[in-house]
Amino acid sequence: MSVSQLQQMPITISSDSCSIPATVNRVVLSNGNFRVELTLDNGQVAIVDLNCSQFKELKLQPQQQVFIRQNDLNILPFCYSI
């Protein structure tokens, strides 16, 4: 399994020719920012860090369908911590 760490705010509510669909799994508040966990259609997990204003603009909710720009993906190995 791999995790995509997205560096910018590639999440949109509407699709375009460069976007792929994803579903919001979880939203976690951490150190004043929001960490959003998404699942892509192929089962891959993507993690997006948003600041407060970005999160308010998108109004994300669990199970919401969103779109991310595929060229913004940076694939990182999935790590488990015990």
Describe how the helices and strands are arranged.
Elements: E1 2-6, E2 11-12, E3 19-30, E4 33-40, E5 45-50, H1 52-58, E6 65-69, E7 75-77
Parallel strand pairs: 1-5
Antiparallel strand pairs: 1-7, 2-6, 3-4, 3-6, 4-5
Short recap of the structure:
9% of the residues lie in helices and 50% in strands. With 82 residues, it is mainly beta.
Give an overview of the whole structure.
This protein has 82 residues and is mainly β. It has a single domain (2-77), classed as Beta Barrel (OB fold (Dihydrolipoamide Acetyltransferase, E2P)), CATH 2.40.50.100. The protein is 9% helix and 50% strand. It contains 1 helix and 7 strands; from the N terminus they run E-E-E-E-E-H-E-E. The protein has one helix at 52-58; strands spanning 2-6, 11-12, 19-30, 33-40, 45-50, 65-69, 75-77. Strands 2-6-3-4-5-1-7 form a 7-stranded mixed β-sheet. The longest helix has 7 residues, at 52-58. It is globular.
Keywords summarizing the entry:
about 80 residues; mainly beta; OB fold (Dihydrolipoamide Acetyltransferase, E2P); seven-stranded mixed sheet; globular
* Total strand segments: 7
Integer tally of domains? 1
Going across the major beta sheet, what is the strand order? 2-6-3-4-5-1-7
Q: How would you state the average pLDDT, rounded?
A: 79
Shape: globular
CATH class: Mainly Beta
SSE order, as H and E? Answer: EEEEEHEE
Straight-line N-to-C gap = 17 Å
**Beta-sheet strand percentage?**
over 45%
Number of helices: 1
